[in-house]
């Protein structure tokens, strides 16, 4: 990690690449990402961040396993080559297979074309992925980087870990669907509230931790059909879309850049990594969450959903054989 950051302050130019990813279309997704990354590099970005599962597209159906690959598979080879060609740190979300399991993984490559590290999502899509274990920190020459993948950023254990490990910079890759109109059980106030949550997420963490925060989100439809489970059936593709609103906030909590809700695009900003700005303030907990929500949903429905999803994953026919085959490159 960078000693000058530990000693005082350092400026770093970072970029968020907001993009739509089609489910299972790795080649076209990476092709769409490449000119956006190149644009960020031309504008001087030293670190470029893509969304959660940008390579495979995002869904919570076990049909997603067709898009899985080993961690040294085609996406990561492309990642390393692109990072080296452009001389940047570059991160992307990958659907990873290892051993008998699948993971929602985020991989960061360094400017020399090597893997700086990877992080697996902990609060994951339990019906298709095994929860990640271990640190969500990657030490690099530009500083200690914390990575929270989508839902991981919504629980209180995330900022507590980041404070304990004294990170210098936080990356928050998401594929976060929210309602874009009122319909059925979704009210106008729900639309407004969830939009404000998304818009303010990089600032929320920057103000809690005193470090720069890069929130990067997917855009576009969530899929042609509703997802599994009670909650999945409530997330109507006619009402919900990946929210966008990617943003970059500095270590003083100021918002530096933000994209809108619909567009593929890039934002670039200079952030300050400053040891003296780091905070240890205890975050406000809403029953273990970082923002308010319906108590019945969180205390009854979601725990039941998670138990059912974990059981489905454990007994899903062919899951172990499929993961073994993918992880071996077959």
TrEMBL record:
Keywords on record: Hydrolase
InterPro entries in alphabetical order: Aliph_Amidase/BUP, C-N_Hydrolase, C-N_Hydrolase_sf
Gene3D superfamilies (UniProt xref): Carbon-nitrogen hydrolase (3.60.110.10)
Keyword Iron-sulfur belongs to the record: no
Pfam families, per the entry: CN_hydrolase (PF00795)
Keyword Hydrolase on entry: yes
Domain CN hydrolase: 12-273
CDD domains named among the record's database cross-references: nitrilase
Superkingdom of origin organism: Archaea
Gene Ontology molecular function terms on file: hydrolase activity, acting on carbon-nitrogen (but not peptide) bonds, in linear amides
Name this polypeptide is given: Amidohydrolase
């Amino acid at each position: 990690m960078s000693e000058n950051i530990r000693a005082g302050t350092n400026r770093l130019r970072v970029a968020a690449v907001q993009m739509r990813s089609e489910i299972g279309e790795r080649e076209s997704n990476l092709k769409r990402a490449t000119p956006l990354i190149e644009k960020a590099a031309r504008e001087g970005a030293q670190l470029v961040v893509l969304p959660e599962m940008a390579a495979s597209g995002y869904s919570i159906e076990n049909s997603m396993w067709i898009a899985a690959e080993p961690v040294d598979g085609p996406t990561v080879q492309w990642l390393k080559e692109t990072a080296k060609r452009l001389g940047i740190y570059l991160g992307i979300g990958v659907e990873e297979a290892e051993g008998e399991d699948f993971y929602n993984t985020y991989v960061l490559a360094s400017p020399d074309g090597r893997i700086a590290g990877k992080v697996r999502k902990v609060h994951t899509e339990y019906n298709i992925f095994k929860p990640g274990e271990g640190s969500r920190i990657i030490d690099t020459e530009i500083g200690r980087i914390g990575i929270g993948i989508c839902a991981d950023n919504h629980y209180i254990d995330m900022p507590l870990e980041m404070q304990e490990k004294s990170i210098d910079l936080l990356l928050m890759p998401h594929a976060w669907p929210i309602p874009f109109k009122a319909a059925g059980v979704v009210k106008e106030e729900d639309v407004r509230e969830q939009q404000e949550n998304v818009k303010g997420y990089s600032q929320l963490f920057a103000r809690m931790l005193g470090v720069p925060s890069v929130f990067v989100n997917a855009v576009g439809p969530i899929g042609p059909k509703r997802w599994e489970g009670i909650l999945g059936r409530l997330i109507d593709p006619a009402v919900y879309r990946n929210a966008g609103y990617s943003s970059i906030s500095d270590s003083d909590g100021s918002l530096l850049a933000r994209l809108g809700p619909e567009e593929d695009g890039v934002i670039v900003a200079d952030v300050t990594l400053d040891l003296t700005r780091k905070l240890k303030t205890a975050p406000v907990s809403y029953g273990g969450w970082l923002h308010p929500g319906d108590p019945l949903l969180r205390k009854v429905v979601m725990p039941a959903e998670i138990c059912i999803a974990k059981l489905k994953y454990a007994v899903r026919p062919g899951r172990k054989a499929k993961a073994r085959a993918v992880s071996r490159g077959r």
